Structure formats: structure tokens, C-alpha cells
Amino acid sequence: MSDLLEHAQDQQRQAVREAAARLLEARSPGYTLPQPFYNDQRLFDLDMKEIFEREWLFAGLGSEIPLKGNFMTMDVGNNPIIIVRGDNGAIHAFHNVCRHRGSRLCSTERGKVAKLVCGYHKWTYELDGRLLFAGSDMGTTFDTSDYGLHPVHVRSAGGMLFINLAEQPENCEPFFKTLEFYLKPYDMENVKVAASSSIIEEGNWKLVIENNRECYHCDGSHPELLNTLQEFDDTDDPRATEAYKALVAKKQADWDAEKVPYQLVRFGRRNRMTRTPLLEGTVSMTTDGTPACKKLLGRLQSPDMGSLRILNLPNSWNHFMGDHAVVFQVDPIGPLKTRVTTKWLVHKDAVEGVDYDLAKLRKVWDATNDQDRQLVEENQRGVNSSAYQPGPYSATFEFGVVDFVDWYAERMQEALKEQQEPHL
Ligand code: 3BY
Ligand code: FES
Ligand code: FE
Description:
One of its GO terms (molecular function) is dioxygenase activity. The protein has 424 residues and is of the alpha+beta class. Helices cover 30% and strands 23% of the residues.
């Protein structure tokens, strides 16, 4: 009976994969995706398995777990994950799943522990994942070394933490090494999270990313952001004007003097980093463009660093300015639901009320996030309609969105071509 059930499930899974492959094969490049990619539960499950369980995901900051025993948790689809600081500053990540009967081990978002103790029957694990003791009598043949926590790959790069659930993750060292170089001036081990927000958007994660990859919508929607943000997304933006190029050249000379990197670097379509100027006369993403924090980040001497933008598909975009940084993490919850977490970072010695004012620090991105949430939710409502059909992206205004969708389609097509292992 159970064999029959598994066979039926395998057939269903295979049918979904074949349907997804055919839809991607038939899609028109330069157009939005066919509807099921934005709202179908089965394709969402495929996204989780083939994208989120295989790619390097931004998971937070090393400075959020500074001490031995500090941990934080997150979910990658159905997979609860724990990231913990162990001995000698080492950072470990595990499936947050007890090896006894599978209970979730740590149920809080963050904290500090001496050992990882399961709340159900008190199996106790070392911070490096080894099982130290099983609470009850497990018999003479039981060997604790067979029951360590299942590890997850984790890479700390320039103070940003990335996890990867694959057994053998793709080698992203060139990106991580470059990130370390770009983030060095910010001394990210010595930042603190001054504020954070976690909002739920009633939309598919791809609509959240698509919305972020263009500023075509900024004019009508983001008055606060446009007080300081250039409408050009990159230094090689096809729309860049002569005035913008002149401003870039002038700022790059200043950045050379500060010895901070700014060149646009891409790693395939997945990762990009570049430093772009803010509007002339402004230095930080605040409503009036003045710094939100008097104490600058790292070794920086001038607040006028523009914004170092770092993209990590599928789940993060970031802005590093001279006085503060804003990091973003996208966690899909369901086909129509996505969590967007934003953290505002300042120098760890900056004092609230003295060096920075919380309301001023977070105002622009709180407003922008809420505006983007509304745009994504309206996008989702329309995409769910029987009248929806893929629409054309603008090659000049939405090249970033085209890049994302092409990356997604290629990754998915590659994954679908791979031999499926039989159901376990
Ligand atoms: O994250 C950004 O820089 C902006 C917000 C709106 C569009 N995007 C390019
Ligand atoms: Fe964790 Fe029993 S499930 S100790
Ligand atoms: Fe936006």
C-alpha cells in the first residue's frame, strides 16, 4: 500500500517537473512569467527544492551572534535552520531538527545557550552539533556519535552570513572574496542592528524580487526614497545621462581618495556589487539626505560614500552608506506569502539619542517597504486573474528584472534536466 502511495507521489512530482519544464521552454524571454510561477503551490514547492534549498542564502550578520552560544533561527521553506556561534568564534549552521523524534530544537528567534537542548525529551547537543547525551535509556547499542545534528553549509563573508542547504553547494568563493574586499572598510564585525522590521507581503517571492530590481515604479511610489536615491540602478544603466556620468566620475575620485572600492562587479546574474552616488548634496537615505548616524561605519572618514549595493539572488539586496547600512532578507512562506526582513546597521558604539535618532534612521525604508508591499500585493491580485497573460518588460527601465527572471528560468531549467533521484 505504502509503495503504491509513493509511486503515485513520484508520478505526480514528475508530472509537475515536466509541466514546469514545458512552461519554461515555451516562455517568451523579456516577458513576465506564466501565471503558475506566481501562484501555484506545486511550483512554489519546486522553487523551494530547486532554488532555495540549493542556492547560497543571506541569513543575517555575524555581529548578531557575537558570543559563544549566541544563536539565531530562520526557515527555508519547511526547513527550520539554526545558526550558532561555537568555540573560537566558529559559526555553525544546522537543521533545527532534533535527531530523536524530530522536534524543532530551538523555537525562539534568537538567544544564548550553553548547549542546544531539545525541549521535548532533553536530548542535548554541543554547539558544534555533536549529541552529548540522550536523556533517556536508549539501550546498549545506541551510539551518540550517530545522532549529531544535520549540518548546513555556512559562509561568513565580510560579516554577512550565507547558508546553503545543498550537500555540495556551488562554489561561490569569487563572490565571497570580492564581498570581503568591498565590506572591509565597514568593519562589519563591529556593527549593531539598531532597528529591524519583518513584514509579510501577500505575494509570491518572485514578485517581491522583481519589484526590487527596477526603479521604473519609484517615481510614482517612493517620494521618501527619491529624496536621495538616483533613478539609475547601476553605473552602466542604459539610461544614464551625461550629468549622472559626470557625478559618478567626481564621486569615484573621492572614493579613490578614501580607498573604498566602487567598480561594478557581476558574478553571473546572481550576484552584483557596485557603489553608486546618491543625489548630489545628499549622503544618506534619510528624508533630508543628511546622515542618520553621527558615528560613521568602520574606518570611513567621510559620510559621502554613496550606496554600496550588494545583490544576492534569490533572497537579498543591500545598501551600505557611510553612516549606516540597510540589509534585506526575503523568506518565502507560501506561493502567495513572503516575509521581508530589514535591518538598519550602525557602528556598535553609536548611542541612540546621541549619535542617531531611530525614527530618522528607519523612516525612508519603513515607508518604502510599505509602498513596495502594496505594489507587490496589487501585482499579485492582478496576476491571479484569469485575464492575466505575460506582459513585456522594458529593456531600458527593467533590465534588472529581465536579468532576475532569466536567471531564475535558467537555474530552474538546469535543475529540471538533472536526473531525479527516486523517492526516499
Ligand atoms: O533597492 C533599491 O535600491 C531600489 C528600491 C526601489 C528600486 N530599487 C532599485
Ligand atoms: Fe528531541 Fe525527543 S524529540 S529529545
Ligand atoms: Fe520600490
